[in-house]
Amino acid sequence: MPREVEPSTIEREFVLAALGQGKRVDGRTPYDMRAIDIQLGPAYGLAEVALGKTRVVAKVAAQVVRPYPDRPNEGQFQLNLELSSMASPTIETGRLSEEEVLVTRVLEKAIRQSRAVDTESLCLLAGEKVWSVRVDIHVLDHYGNLIDCATMAAMAALLHFRRPDVTIIGEDVTIHTLEERNPVPLSLHHIPLCISFAFFEQGEQLVIDPSYLEERLQDGDMTVTVNTHRELCALSKAGGAPLPSEQVLRCIQLATAKGAEITERIQNAVRASLDALLPGGQKGSGGGGIGLDR
To answer: Which of 29, 54, 212, 291 has its CA 20 to 30 A from that of 177?
Structure first.
């Protein structure tokens, strides 16, 4: 397995000198994110998101299972992240890396622990049958800021996903095929998105959406999870340089603005894809929770 070469002193000095002039080595300003591209389909719940050169694919699947004994009225929701050598030659396949653990923890906080998915709506028969929804996230190319790209892909896939409709008569549950009935969207309480920052010069300089080089040179980092209701869902900071409260508040304000823009882009992409997939022009934004018109 090839070893990762540490950034040289010249690279460090060049990055810091550029930041001192309000510029970044890839031409962005400190508050600019890389270009975002969202591709959905052809299957329901399949999303590929590119953030610059970083690319992530998310696929949602659902099956009927027995509920957990301590939560008989709730369905199940799981997230699974795969970071392999396909994304970067410095990653060892089959071995859990520190970065993979960190990204998984942040995604769990941002999406599952914030209860983005309404698990109660996944219940079919209390104590007997519930939907189990699983999101598999595969990193295709790692060029920095996996957390933000993975969150976008996961939420786009969840908004795009449609599960089979069901008929419940007594204790009998009939799962209809897509030909028999139109599929049903998931019920989402909100749409959380992660916005990550890197800090330099002991926290005095900050950049949004750090590149791979900036991540390796940073003095610290922080990820802010927000939704379109201007709610702070989570805040993750794994060590690094201490930050004054003013810097934290500035990051939250920036994350709120960027999160609203990205949410709108995801919703527009989902709506356009569903127009082509659903019969009769039905957009399928019903089903409770967050609709695409919101």
So the answer is: 291
Per-residue pLDDT tens for 274-292? 988 866 544 444 334 565 5
Give the C-alpha separation, 8 to 11, whole Å: 5
The pLDDT tens digits for 13-59 are 898 899 989 999 999 999 999 999 999 999 999 999 999 999 999 99
Q: Is residue 287 part of a domain?
A: no
20 part of a folded domain: yes
| Polymer length in residues for the chain | 294
Residues facing 132 on adjacent strands: 63, 76
Nearest to 16 by CA among 222, 221, 200: 200
Measured at the alpha carbon of residue 200, what is the angle toward residues 194 and 202, in degrees to the nearest 5? 115
User: Is there a domain that residue 289 lies in?
Assistant: no
Range of weakest confidence among 105-119, 125-139, 267-281:
267-281
Does 167 fall in a domain?
yes
Q: How many domains does the chain have?
A: 1
Whole-angstrom Cα distance, residue 77 to residue 119?
Answer: 7
Residue range(s) defining the domain that contains residue 22: 14-281
CA gap 20, 15 in Å, rounded: 9
Q: Which CATH number does the domain housing residue 65 bear?
A: 3.30.230.70
Two tokens, residue 17: 């000198």
